[in-house]
Automatic annotation (TrEMBL):
Segments of skewed composition (Basic and acidic residues): 128-144
DNA-binding recorded as keyword: no
GO BP annotation list: mRNA splicing, via spliceosome
Taxonomic lineage: Eukaryota, Metazoa, Chordata, Craniata, Vertebrata
Keyword annotations from UniProtKB, A to Z: mRNA processing, mRNA splicing, Spliceosome
Major localisation: nucleus
Subcellular localization, as worded in the UniProt entry: Nucleus speckle
InterPro entries reported for this sequence: PRP4-like, PRP4-like_sf
Tagged with keyword Coiled coil: no
Protein name: Pre-mRNA processing factor 4 (PRP4)-like domain-containing protein
Domain Pre-mRNA processing factor 4 (PRP4)-like: 87-139
GO CC, alphabetical: nuclear speck; spliceosomal complex; U4/U6 x U5 tri-snRNP complex
Length: 152
């Protein structure tokens, strides 16, 4: 065994205070408060903290616009889910044609066309397709009346 192993570890001496610690605690708390107050004063003097002007910014308007846009998007999606669209591809193409949309986009299948018609109807409204069909029928009737032979 070596000499370093035989030696007992040195004991730490504890400090013994006689009397109350209240005064030292008050001094410590007072120093912390002074440092915090000094920091705020230094920030105000540097111009980083602006308390004197009293100006405020209204954040609610911008948040409410975002909320309205989000709610409108959710409402449009909800309406799109509820709109009934035919599974017949010819009827879907006719509906897209009646609304003035391209019949087929590049690489688009029948299911994609149905979804596109559904999304267009959710924006325009499901009654728009019915109105356009009524207008087409009226146009056909007026053309048929013009084609009739008249005898005087």
């Amino acid at each position: 065994m070596s000499d370093s192993e035989d030696a007992a570890p040195a004991m730490k001496r504890t400090r013994v205070y006689y009397g109350s610690l209240e005064e030292k605690e008050r001094e410590r708390l007072g120093a912390d408060a002074m440092r915090g107050g000094d920091a705020v004063k230094a920030g105000i003097e540097a111009g980083n903290i602006n308390i004197s002007s009293g100006e405020t910014m209204d954040m609610e308007e911008r948040v409410s616009e975002r909320q309205q846009e989000a709610l409108a998007a959710f409402e449009r999606r909800r309406r799109a889910r509820q709109i009934m669209v035919s599974t017949d591809d010819a009827e879907v193409k006719a509906g897209l044609r009646a609304l003035g949309e391209p019949i087929t986009l590049f690489g688009e299948g029948p299911a994609d066309r149905r979804e596109r018609l559904r999304s267009v109807l959710s924006v325009v409204g499901p009654d728009a397709l019915k109105k356009s069909r009524r207008e087409e029928e009226r146009a056909k009737r007026s053309q048929d009346e013009c084609q009739q032979t008249w005898y005087h």
